[in-house]
Amino acid sequence: MAKEVRADIETMRAADADRQKVAEQLKTALDEGRLTLHEYDERTALAYSSKTYQELLMLLTDLPRPGQSATEVRARRDAERRRAARRLPTAMLVLWTIWASLTVVNLVVWGLVVVGSDSGVYPWPVWMLVPGAALAATTVGVQLIRNRA
What are the angstrom distances between the C-alpha of 16 and each of 47, 56, 74, 120, 131? Predict the structure, then answer.
């Protein structure tokens, strides 16, 4: 569905204001030294003759956002890669959510039993540490394997 919407947007006709914004971005790229004067002239002519958003977007695909240096672009890309590497796979997140939910339920039930009884109650929720430790070991193993790849 998102690709259909994206395709529809790209095939929509562009307005004069959109063409002007692209021309301003191209001027900024020229001022930053990312485009030569010849490239700027060509792209500006194409921007003003563009009919659709897709034609306008094609003029900007190889340019970073205005005001960003190459080191900033590289740093952002590296940060995104590191963030993706640290992120747990969805299956691990589901398992951790299930374990945490069961642990909370066990603790609440144990707390209610302790409050409702006169004698000491065995702290049976401590046994939730066993699957928690196994899950932690699995998570560490998965992350090590992902970081090697």
Answer: 10, 11, 33, 78, 62
